[in-house]
Amino acid sequence: MKKINIGIVGCGYIAEEAHIPNFLGSAKVGKVAIADVNKERLSLMATKFGIKERYANYDEMLKDPTIDGVSICVPPFLHSEVGTKAAEAGKHILCEKPISTSLSDADKLIESAKKNNVKLMIGHNIRFLPNHDLVKKWVTQEKIGKSTFVRAQAALQGPYGTPGLASSFYFDPNRGGGVLLDVGIHLADLLLWIFGDVAQVRGSSGTYRPDINKANDVASVSLKFESGVIGELFVSWVGISNWHLMTNFNDLQVLGEFGFIRSDFYGPFVSLFNEKSLVCKLKGPLRMATMHTDPKIPFLAKNYAYKKEIDSFIDCVLKDESPPVTGEDGRRALKLILDSEQC
Fold first, then answer.
1. What end-to-end distance do the CA atoms of the chain give, in Å?
2. Over residues 227-236, mean pLDDT
3. How many CB atoms lie within 10 A of CB 113?
4. Nearest to residue 268, comparing CAs of 255, 250, 254?
5. Class of domain 127-297+334-342
6. What is the pLDDT of residue 210?
7. CATH class of 4-125+306-326
8. Which residues pair with 224 in a beta bridge?
C-alpha cells in the first residue's frame, strides 16, 4: 500500500485532539513528524504519542524531502505564512480553520498552492458529519419543498472550558480570536455548502465576559442567500459545562414549504417532518441516528468528523484528487464572517 509522510506544525489543543492521533492511526500514513516553538509542549506531545521526529523550527521540517504533506495547527494569523512556505517547499496542505484572518492572506495561500501545484484543504470538519450530509441531500431533493428559512446555532464552552487560555489567540482578534472566527466559521462553511452563496449579510456581536474586552464572545448574523432563502447564524461561548443542557442551542434547522429538518451540530441525530408524509402525520417528526454512538459520550460524532476530514485529505493526496474543502471554500466562509463583523 502506498503511504504518505506527514509533518504537523503546532502541538496545541487541536493537534493533540485530532491531527496527531488520526494521522498516527491511519494505515495510509508512514511517518509523522511534529514541530512547535514551545519546546516543553513539543516534548510532551512527542512523549505522549511516541513520535521520534520533532522540530523546534518548522522550516527545518519543511526541508525534509520525505515529507509529503503538512498539517497546519498554529493560531489563525500564522496560517497563511506557514502554508505559503509549505507550498513553496512542495508539501500538500491541510490547514485548520479559518483559512486565515484576512482575505488578502487567504488569497496568498490559495495562489501559492496553485503556483506550486500542491493540494490545499481547509479543516472544516463539521461538514463531514453524516447528519449534515443528509441535510444537504434533502435540501437539494426538496424533501420539505423549497427551503425558506435556515438557522444555524452553536453555544459552546470554547476557551471558557479550558483553564489558562486567557492570554491566548482566542481572545485577540488580530490573531484570529473571537467566537465568530472560532465557531461561527464552521456554521458559515456549513450554510454556504448547503445553500450556496450569500447576497446580504448583517451582523451584531458583543463581549459579555468582563475579562475579555477585545474579542466577541456572542454574535448573531442575518443572511439572505442568492437563492432567496433567509438565514440566521448564532454563536456564543458559554460557561456551562454540561453538554446536554446546551442541546437546544446547537443545531441546524431548516424550514420548508411543507416541512422542516433539524440536525445536531455535533451529530449524530437528524429529524425530518414532511406534512405530505402519512408516517409523519401519524408519528410526527422522524428522528434518526446517522451513526452509532454512546449517548454517555457526547463528542464521539465530532471525533468521527475529525477522522473523516483527515482521511479525506490523505486520500486526495494519494489519489491526486481535489480536496473536498478547497481553499476557495475556506475563503468564502471567511468573507462571510468578516463581512458580518463590518456591519
1. 52
2. 98
3. 25
4. 250
5. alpha beta
6. 75
7. alpha beta
8. 200, 230
Given CA atoms 210, 212, 215, 217 in this order, what sign does their dihedral have? negative
> Per DSSP, what are the bridge partners of residue 259?
256, 274
Query: Sheet of 198-206: strands edge to edge?
Result: 198-206, 218-225, 230-237, 147-156, 251-256, 259-264, 269-274, 286-289
| Residue 326: burial class (beta carbons within 10 Å; 0-12, 13-18, 19+) | middle
Under a CB-based contact definition with an 8 Å cutoff, are residues 6 and 18 in contact? no
**C-alpha cell, 274:** 414532511
97: cell is 480553520
Q: CB-side exposure of 46: number of CA atoms within 13 Å? A: 17
Q: What angle do CA 44, 128, 339 make, to 5 degrees?
A: 90
Neighbours of 230 (CB within 10 A): 15
pLDDT tens track for 110-129? 999 999 999 999 999 999 99
Residue 27 pLDDT > 70: yes
Q: Cell 504537523, residue?
A: 8
Q: Mapping DSSP to helix (H, G, I), strand (E, B) and coil, where does residue 225 land?
A: strand
Query: Which of 100, 106, 111 lies closest to 77, judged by CA?
Result: 100
* Alpha-carbon gap, residue 76 to 2, rounded angstroms: 32
Tell me the H-state helices in the chain: 13-14, 20-24, 39-49, 58-62, 79-88, 103-115, 130-141, 179, 185-195, 278-283, 300-318, 327-342
- Grid coordinates representing 112 are 501559492
Domain limits, the chain: 4-125+306-326, 127-297+334-342
Strand 29-35 to 198-206 pairing: unpaired
- Nearest Cα to Cα of residue 157 among 266, 63, 61: 266
Q: What is the mean pLDDT of residues 302-316?
A: 96
